[in-house]
Amino acid sequence: MSYDPSNVFAKILRGEIPAFKIYEDAETFAFLDIMPRTTGHALVIPKSPCRNALDASPAQLTACLLTVQKVARAAMAAFGAPGVKIEQYNEPASGQTVFHLHYHVLPCWDGVPLGPPGQMGDMEKIKAHAGVLAGKLAGG
Ligand code: 5GP
Question: How far is the CA of 33 from the centre of ligand 1 (A)?
């Protein structure tokens, strides 16, 4: 399977559609999911193209995981979450729906199950959460 640059995350990277950005560095970009399965559900993507973990380069995987760790630590602190789940899907059979490599960072609370995928969130709440998380990632 090849990379299709018309995917929604490529559009976000090109600035063609908006995103609730929380962090970026030279290689990676992080933003909140608009269909959050938990408070502060974040996505981490490489700035360079690859479809998923199967065609990603060692450099893309490394850069993403370093950012995933930063975002996970910041999300736990920002939202007072005692745990965090990291998910990453490869190809449709696994549940991948956007074909640009991404890691889900999902803050978790004891006894609170993740919500279902595919349900649009409250944009004002997501914007507020993005502000809190961006502030934490910036050292706040
Ligand atoms: P996947 O199922 O491919 O691992 O996850 C794709 C994720 O992208 C889903 O959690 C979905 O809610 C999210 N998503 C889809 N379209 C958009 C969008 O336009 N903006 C943002 N921020 N997230 C999106």
Answer: 6
